Amino acid sequence: MNATLPNPDAQPLMLRVLAGETTERPPIWFMRQAGRYLPEYLELRAKAPDFIAFCLNPEMAAEATLQPMRRYAFDAAIVFADILLLPGALGQKVWFQAGEGPKLGPLPELATMEAEIEASTARLANVGETLGRVRAVLEPERALIGFAGAPWTVATYMIEGGSSDRSRARTYAYEHPEALDRLLDILVEASARYLAMQAANGAQVLQIFESWAEGLPEDLFQRLVIGPHVKLLARVRELGVTIPVIGFPRGAGALAEGYAAQVPMNAVALDTQASAEMGRRIQSITAIQGALDPLLLRAGGKALDARVETLLHQWGGGRYIFNLGHGIILDTPPEHVGRVVARVTGKQGWGG
Amino acid sequence: MNATLPNPDAQPLMLRVLAGETTERPPIWFMRQAGRYLPEYLELRAKAPDFIAFCLNPEMAAEATLQPMRRYAFDAAIVFADILLLPGALGQKVWFQAGEGPKLGPLPELATMEAEIEASTARLANVGETLGRVRAVLEPERALIGFAGAPWTVATYMIEGGSSDRSRARTYAYEHPEALDRLLDILVEASARYLAMQAANGAQVLQIFESWAEGLPEDLFQRLVIGPHVKLLARVRELGVTIPVIGFPRGAGALAEGYAAQVPMNAVALDTQASAEMGRRIQSITAIQGALDPLLLRAGGKALDARVETLLHQWGGGRYIFNLGHGIILDTPPEHVGRVVARVTGKQGWGG
To answer: What's this model's pTM, rounded to 2 decimal places?
Structure first.
């Protein structure tokens, strides 16, 4: 993407942190760094009205993945995809309605989904192709991230039929514990294979998004989040995957510490609420990632500049990947993103 | 309410815990213990179509307050009212639409509201009358709780015009820090006077509901939650109020510990996510209250019974008030409430 020759010995800064190094500066990438806040994304997206078809089109998804890498000096790209591709691949109907968020059809029989696990990975082969295309052109100093939704988060969408306050899924966890555990096991196995396929196709880091850890009582958090993450990570390793894995238990509150202690992730991503102290305690166990408020990134101004300095100061002395505490909001001015990336990296743009 | 003569020396169990005692069993009450899950409430409520008029009718509000006290052996009653009575009393239009939650008109000028603080307390005098009516008939062994919304939570409704994800209010906090601080100061002063009026009319305990502490970054939590709670509590004390005060920073996550350390509340109420360990650490500073999952109370069954035992076991050895982590959900079976109250109190009903 730039005029210099690639250096095959360059080790991406992101991978150095995930290998346990405290680096000269934190690497930076943003959740949802590719997407609707970028005018070039909107232009590209307009060419494929169906969102799932867009995600599964390797040419378009690779282009979406690369767009923010041209604008900004991000240290990592994340493959453009969606956590709800997996339920689709397992046989549940999934569709996106403009302005309404995802919708899912009835939950298929568990036995039917169990029989579809192997096929589900094959149905997501295009995500692997997207990764290959991106890796072929991305500079070697920049890492490529693959991802999947965490079992509980994906299960909440599958049970509730879309976005909601997760109360139906939590009630299901109380009233049908065996059925839920079986669904989580299906998702552990299908996600492990999906992640292994991504690693085989060029992903150098994997992230597991537990978007809906919030509000869970401690016993449910143990059962629905920590347990399945431990299983999923072990299964990914059993499948021969050796690249680093980041866990993101969003909304875990004080329970994030128990998560970090029990799940042997290479990094734990923190949400906006994480305290400086808790982050430092987790840094003594593993690397951390986060936790700038996306609302502040959108607001910009002096408050944003000051908060960036605070985050660099409070965590930059240890293993730290600069990121948001949640995804970029769609009406975020692109120049706010550029300002933060330039501050953290010292570069105005890649190669600039 | 029962046939036995009142014992003037009886000290409510709730007040003993709040005075620092570890009691033989935890007292119990539930947030939203009066309300729509009770058929007798629905019958009463049908007589006054307007919700605000219902809250400000001392006869009806006293009856609503007392309904759960007849059914269950709760150790405390909480005055039937709403945290949005205060913005209404300060001159902002507030109305409730069935099935839609609260709606608020445009935010009045700050100077106008500043001039209305004294008058706002007078406009809420009927809440005082409700408290007096309840205290006159409630058994002396049972405590009476008054309450107010916390400044930030009330401000989010005032800024956003109703319920939402609070992103507008948080953006306002970033973009208009002086205006927000001034609004919070108005709410601190108006709430302090409102709470003092409740104490003067029979409330024996006060609770401050910070329903929307969740997701705030540490710096904003300090500025929008901890700061105003410290000010509000100090102002309540300056106004001569000596009764215990409970703070409820719902959704504070790991930041609840800093809250407990910095705000000298007589108890800190914990939400559903609070860990056993964090609760015990806070118990070394003050009493705690909470944190049964209202979704589990609704679901019932063995999972509910088991969780009640866990909570009693993990916190019952210290200063502990049994409660939910959030309010009762409207379609909760009343018999589930009865089952938990009976287990905690050892009584089938009051006087039973």
So the answer is: 0.94
